[in-house]
Structure formats: C-alpha cells, structure tokens
Write a structure and sequence with these properties.
Length: about 280
Amino acid sequence: MRTIQVEQITQEVAQMCKEAAYYLPEDVYEALKKGRETEESPVGRDVLDQIIKNAEIAKTEDRPICQDTGMTIVFVEVGQDLHIEGGGLNDAINAGVAKGYTEGYLRKSVVAEPLFDRKNTQNNTPAIIYTEVVPGDKLKIEIEPKGFGSENKSGIKMLVPADGVEGVKKAVMEIILHASCNPCPPMVIGVGIGGTMDKAAYYSKRALLRPLTVRNAHPKYAALEKELLDLVNKTGIGPQLGGTTSALAVNIEWGPTHIAGLPVAVTICCHATRHSKRVL
C-alpha cells in the first residue's frame, strides 16, 4: 500500500489555490480570443479586449484574475490502495486552502454561519469538498474557486420525464435569461441532468472542470450542448454590455435518476472559469 503525507497534500492545495486565482486555463483563454474574432458588437469586442488583457496581466504579474477569488470547491478521488498518513484528508485540504489564500493575498470570502452572524473565517475555509473512492493508489485533486456573482445566478429545476428535451432546454434558458448580464459574461455554463436535486447540482459543478474543447462523449448530449450554446449566444446578452458572445461553452454531465424525475441544474461561471488539478 502506498503512503502519502498530509503535509504534501496541504502544500499542493496551497499552490493550486494560487495558480487557479492567477492563471486562466488555456482553453478558456483561447475561447475568449476566438469569441473576440467572431463578436459582432463593437462594444462587445472592446469588452473582450479588456478581459483578455486582464487575464494576461494576471498571469504575468501573479495577480488574481478577479477580486472575487471565490469559495473553494474541491473534488477529490482517493485510490483505495492509498494510505494518508499524519492527519485527516479534509483537514489537510482546508489547511492548504488557508495557506494558499493567506500567502497569495487572495480575498477571504467565507463566513462561518450563513444567516445571523456571518462572521468571516479569515482564511477562506472551510472548502466545499466532494470525495470519491476509486481503484488504484493515487490521489487526484481538482479545485474550482467559485465566485458568487455567477453562483448567485445559478439554479435548479425539478422536471418530470414528460418535459423531455424541450423541457430541459426551456429550463436552462429560463435560468440564463434571468441571470442576464449579471454573472460577468461571457459565461461558461455547467448543466447537470439526472440524479437527485443535490446530485444534479454536483454534476453541473463537475461539468465546469471539463475542457471547453471537449464535448460530451454521448453524441445526443454533445448535440444538446451545441444547441444550448447557440441559443444562449442568440440572446444578445453578449460580453457584459450586449453582443453575440454570451457564453464560451455549455458542458453537460448526467447520471441515472428516478423513473419519476428529471432534475436539471445549471451552474453559471463568469469568464474567469478557474480550476487547477494535481495527481499525487
């Protein structure tokens, strides 16, 4: 059985937090440039120029792409033949988030209690951690810092099977139209279909980790991704001030559900769709 020390996990997570805040993923950067080439609105082109320039400055100067450095969502795959030594996995991850956000001078945005006191924890912990046990002896960690300008415009619809594909499209577009320009478009849209209410939301968050150039492996879902992207880009929302580049991608993840259900969740992300990955 392979052993890994919690201190290594903490150090890697800390670095990942800083990387995700500073460096826009290459697929998102290239999608922004492609959107700039096809954008029909002069104002939209100017906005995209500024977004691209901002990403380049952030990368060059190791500065946050956006002042909202998000609540840290962490997806972990733990190999069943891996032994974690020196402490707990969740504690190690949260220590890494605290270290990364403190050392990287990233904004701490987490409050310990959501309704009455709302006192800031001062280190952006606790993270939202999803853990899955898988075959092997590796530890895969993916982090997704999620800003709340876009998170607040995400949503879920509990459909029934009779609603079908048209119902799914209607549900997604209702959420997008309600969001309008508030999530700092061009957006990246994660759609989760199936499972339960909470699992659909999980799928939608996972969908944001998939490269924008990679379509769903199921051809019908891949076709739906393209159709939804076309519909979103026809809304006129554009890059914040109107135009034809409202979204860079629509990624769908799906899973089994109940015979009476068709949950649909939409997680909207702004143009700063940040994430980082390690396999230890």
